[in-house]
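Lecture notes, continued. The same structure-token format from the folding unit now serves as the input rather than the output. Read the line below as a description of shape only.
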């Protein structure tokens, strides 16, 4: 098969690797300059930050096998077994040098077109899919797998004359406002270097130095969904100032020496579609991602895997 995968996040990369491993020709297209979606790691000066997904857990045996492969390859490791004084026993995994290490590992050997904006997906008279970029470049394929957030995938399906079920296309996402702060000393964050839901503002605060990915203290502050929504429309500077103020109790005696404010529109789906993917009537267009098999990294991985295997099964 010739397959186009729209989206180079976790679901898209997993789907592409599965298809390529079985000899199919796959092109992955993503509008971002980098890859990985929520597996995002960036630098501010000497600070290194995970600013999307902070860690992941493992419950499904299929995902466990994949994660063990990442561990064996040296791109993932265990950070801790819980946050706070009482550990729950579940290992929290992270990328060895940041979450993007996992995405880069999955991307090895794939044909990925980054910084490429999909304008429309249409179908020719002979049933071939045409994925057209805003530059007018076209990619023709037997199968299209859409792994972008549901609102974006719905738009692509609509241009193709495919109507997603109302229950699927109406799935919305929590928003997250975030502050990435480089400090001149250790923050006031207990071991193992992170807290979850510590107050009415934040859902997660993590010191990337304690996590082991930053040479200096670099703290990711994620505002919770309710706070992020209520302050979403504030001007950039105003929202950043509020987060800086809310962050003060967690700085200890340290000072912020550099910072960046981020808006994350499609952070976590409000609910999940009951199946691991969705397919059109002739199983040539698939929709997958973290809104399907669960909103965590495990769900996105299993959704991408499910879509790829279903596409191969449909073609015999």
């Amino acid at each position: 098969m010739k397959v186009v995968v729209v989206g180079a996040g976790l679901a898209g990369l997993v789907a592409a690797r599965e298809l390529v491993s079985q000899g199919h020709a796959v092109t992955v297209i993503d509008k971002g300059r980098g890859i990985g979606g929520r597996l995002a790691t960036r630098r501010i000066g000497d600070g290194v930050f995970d600013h999307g997904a902070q860690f992941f857990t493992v419950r499904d045996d299929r995902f466990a096998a994949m994660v063990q492969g990442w561990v064996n390859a040296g791109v993932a490791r265990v950070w801790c077994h819980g946050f706070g004084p009482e550990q729950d026993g579940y290992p929290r995994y992270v990328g060895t040098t940041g979450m993007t290490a996992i995405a880069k590992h999955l991307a090895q050997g794939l044909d990925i077109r980054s910084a490429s904006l999909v304008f429309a997906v249409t179908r020719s008279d002979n049933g071939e899919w045409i994925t057209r970029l805003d530059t007018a470049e076209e990619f023709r394929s037997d199968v299209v797998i859409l792994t972008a957030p549901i609102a974006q995938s719905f738009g692509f399906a609509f241009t193709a004359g495919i109507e997603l079920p109302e229950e699927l296309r109406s799935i919305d996402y929590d928003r997250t406002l975030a502050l990435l702060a480089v400090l001149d000393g250790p923050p006031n964050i207990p071991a193992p270097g992170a807290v979850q839901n510590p107050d009415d503002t934040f859902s997660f605060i993590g010191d990337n130095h304690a996590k082991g990915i930053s040479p200096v203290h670099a703290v990711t502050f994620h505002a919770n969904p309710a706070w992020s929504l209520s302050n979403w429309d504030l001007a950039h500077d105003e929202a950043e100032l509020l987060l800086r103020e809310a962050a003060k109790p967690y700085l200890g005696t340290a000072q912020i020496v550099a910072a960046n404010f981020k808006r994350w529109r499609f952070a976590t789906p409000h609910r999940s579609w009951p199946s691991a993917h969705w397919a059109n009537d002739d199983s040539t267009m698939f929709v997958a991602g973290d809104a399907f098999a669960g909103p965590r990294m495990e769900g996105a991985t299993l959704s991408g895997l499910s879509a790829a295997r279903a596409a191969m099964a449909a073609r015999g």
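Point for the exam: The longest helix spans residues 297-314.
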